[in-house]
Amino acid sequence: MNQSRQGTLLDSVLGAIGNTPMVELARITRGVEGRIVAKLEYLNPGYSKKDRIALQMIEEAEASGALQPGQTVVELTSGNTGTGLAIVCAVKGYPFVAVMSKGNSVERARMMQALGAELVLVDQLPDSVPGEVSGGDLALVEEVACRLTRERNAFRADQFHLQSCARAHYLHTAQEMLRQSDGRIDVFCEFVGTGSTFGGCSAALKEHNPAIMCYVVEPAGAAVLAGQPVTQPNHRIQGGGYGMQNLDLIDEERIDGYLQVSDEEATKMARRLAREEGIFAGFSSGANVAAGLQLLTTTHVGKTIAVMLCDSGLKYLSTDLWN
């Protein structure tokens, strides 16, 4: 996996996964001492960083025999992992069932279906708001995913627990960041959903240089990993902040601190990225950059902070992000 995109004829779109560009956000940080360097993960074929874990999960499952030819693949998703799995399964010939909350944006659902996935939508809790998926909503999706896995004798591409997800970022994403920055990274901060990106990248970055500081980013009002009570379960930053205390893919010893970003801050920064940097990204990307700017203007003045721009703003056209 992770072939070079440049000067090579790929035998399938899977070779286009990874090796995304990294850019300095010089306009966002104008007037601030220090740098934010951002990995453009929305340039993956499925428009998100989750393409990486989709390919890693399937290839490792094939290699171990956990996934047999023609076997159905099932996974819960907020849309991005499902899109990545739909792409990988389409190319490799596996039926794929995506289980998703009705609270996620409709663009994601339509994209998965266009890629050949069978889509199962799950109702939200009575007090939930469309576009704001809570941990309780995710628990309902998990129940359906487990049932379908049993009924169809399927392989569960379990993004919250399979170590292959963290390995995708340990082996590839972090190594790309180090090459692209010439190893000059002082801080890494990442909005946490399953924990695979933070888990894999923090391990590789600290292996390269133990002095690199790694921060977990969470929604304000849903910062459970930071030990805070959940006061806003229905935040608008899709793909994370589910209020889950135990994430198997994160080693707590590699967490150097916790940052919180409000819906308003994430939204404002995503809009700034579009207007000032020409980068059309989603809520969690805005959250990551907002968190990085927090650090540059407080405790890490003058440092180089690496962040992920997790997915494309195209996946949020039906939400109020662009209104």
Task: Give me a quick take on this structure.
With 323 residues, this protein is of the alpha/beta class. It is built from eight helices and ten strands.
Description:
The protein folds into two domains: 13-49 and 166-322, Rossmann fold, CATH 3.40.50; 50-156, Rossmann fold (3-Layer(aba) Sandwich). Helices cover 35% and strands 15% of the residues. It contains eight helices and ten strands. The protein has helices at 50-64, 80-92, 106-114, 135-151, 163-180, 196-208, 263-277, 283-296; strands spanning 22-24, 35-40, 73-76, 96-101, 118-122, 155-156, 187-191, 213-219, 257-261, 304-309. Strands 1-2-10-7-8-9 form a six-stranded mixed β-sheet. α1 packs across α5 (163-180) and α7 (263-277) crosses α8 (283-296). The model has no long low-confidence stretch (mean pLDDT 95).
